[in-house]
Amino acid sequence: MPYLYTVDFCISSSKPFSHITFFFFANLISLFSFSLFVINLLKAQIFRLFLGLVEIEKKRESLTKMEAVLQTKGLLSLPSKPKTRAFYPLPQGGLRHRFNSVNSLKPKPLEGLSLSSDGFQKFQGFAKKPQLIGQKNRFFPVCKAEVAAAADGVPLLGENESPKFMGIELVTLKKIIPLGLMFFCILFNYTILRDTKDVLVVTAKGSSAEIIPFLKTWVNLPMAVGFMLLYTKLANVLSKQALFYTVILPFIAFFGAFGFVLYPLSNYFHPTALADQLLNILGPRFLGPIAILRIWSFCLFYVMAELWGSVVVSVLFWGFANQITTVDEAKRFYPLFGLGANVALIFSGRTVKYFSNLRKSLGPGVDGWAVSLKAMMSIVVLMGLAICGIYWWVNHNVALPNRSKKKKEKPNMTTMESLKFLVSSKYIRDLATLVVAYGISINLVEVTWKSKLKAQFPSPNEYSSFMGDFSTATGIATFTMMLLSQWIFDKYGWGTAAKITPTVLLLTGVGFFSLILFGDPLAPALAKFGITPLLAAVYVGAMQNIFSKSAKYSLFDPCKEMAYIPLDEDTKVKGKAAIDVVCNPLGKSGGALIQQFMILTFGSLANSTPYLGGVLLVIVLGWLGAARSLDGQFTALRREEELEKEMERVAVKIPVVSQDESGNGSLTSDSSSLNPMGGDSAGASPEPSSPRNV
Asked: Rounded to an integer, what distance in angstroms lies between the CA atom of residue 620 and that of residue 509?
């Protein structure tokens, strides 16, 4: 049962009605989402059990058909003119037999037996069966028909199926359950770190939300590039396990040290006096860059929290998951990881709120935020150690799947080559516009909203408590949208799904900036509901961030990946490489650069708010236009692809088995073979040929 929202929100008691109403509806949404989760979980288990029964029945039918094929005259028969052929003797124990050494196999002549399908002795012997645990240097000859059956998903003759639970193989469960626990722990930590980093840099003395765009551009980006260069060097000299521990353990040690050492002693090594002098000389418009120097340890925490999301989640976890899972397992279980991620978001948000409210139970003179920070960093350390323990267990108890050693060629496009490729294709240009527009739009709104959030909740504990509610609401909304996304795609199609995210940003953005720009005229109307324009702007901005992020995860990301599918292979590979090289960084840093320019030009973030609203409007309208254009092109390519597939199906010729003069069956695709009453072909027996199902 998920934690319910409470009404002990850290807001003045003069506005009780709006807060009780807000959290009452939040409670209803939480209960409704949890009920949907339980219902879908039960449906998934029942469906998997049904699939397991169907799979067993299909395997039985396949075995029956294979036995019938082996007994067919054309596939297992005595030729009219047998030839002497060197052949391995078949032991009486069955088709498979264990030999201690390959050298002990001596060919002996065998007469009167053919396993060919065209009258010629083309049977090449046996295939080598994979060795099991504890079996070394042993050779298991397996009949080629048995190998073919195994390739179709049918178990080898005489081989028992692997044990299953609820239709899932136990070997697969040994991978998926630990991976799910790892993913939960990683994202649980990430939510705590993401909420805490904003509290530290925004509510610190001498800082504000204006620090975020400068921090992302001039500190976060260089450190991310440097970290990935170091990671590449380490990957060349360390094993995979050593690389995993080498990367994740410094994160765990830093977060533990920050909560118990760096933050309590921050007043002793932060250059507050130097920062005050620089601010007096340069003026208030340089508050953001100077704040980076003033609270450098908090900025370091901010960067490490950002890197946890990009390095531990994207590089370490997904790299490890792709290493130990097969393609079929990934198709089946990776979508469940997305639902599990939102469950982690819900519970971690409740955890942040609980520890943020500890200040109320502490005596006067106690730094409540320091106590809350120690508790949350302790949880982060414990979760990090649990991640390492799960990783160790999987590496020592789960066998890795066999991989093809052939490496796919990936285009190594430079930035200029990527730009040229983007400009040359309208389809790729529209897709790039979607990616860049989202990155800029969400940054423009988020920083402005956090500045108003600090004005409403100046205390770190109050700010952190609100961010805990925000994370929980984001998890609930995203979980619900993921359940609805399949229905949206089926009923309304790709185009509507691609337009939902910019539409949500546009509508909520208009409301958010209207409350900021026209707050005074709206104050009397809002006072009737017991809220101020500032509090209303905070709520509307929270709704904008919640719904835009949930729409992004459930609709925008799938739409972006689906847009690559109908492209030809060359355009698909080069287009994705170009967007990864140019558009993703441009979208992330574009909003920060625009905000920096506005702050330095107009003096502060508050003075530049009207212009930021205009920029957001232009970008979202361009985003909608690109989505409409891409929808037409995407639909046309899909129709062409379906037409080509239909033509290929019509052009397929059905192969049949006919008898030749030796009495053996032979595969033929000649049109005359399709007519069982037709004339004999050249060299055929006088009996009429008849089609057979192979």
From this structure: 10
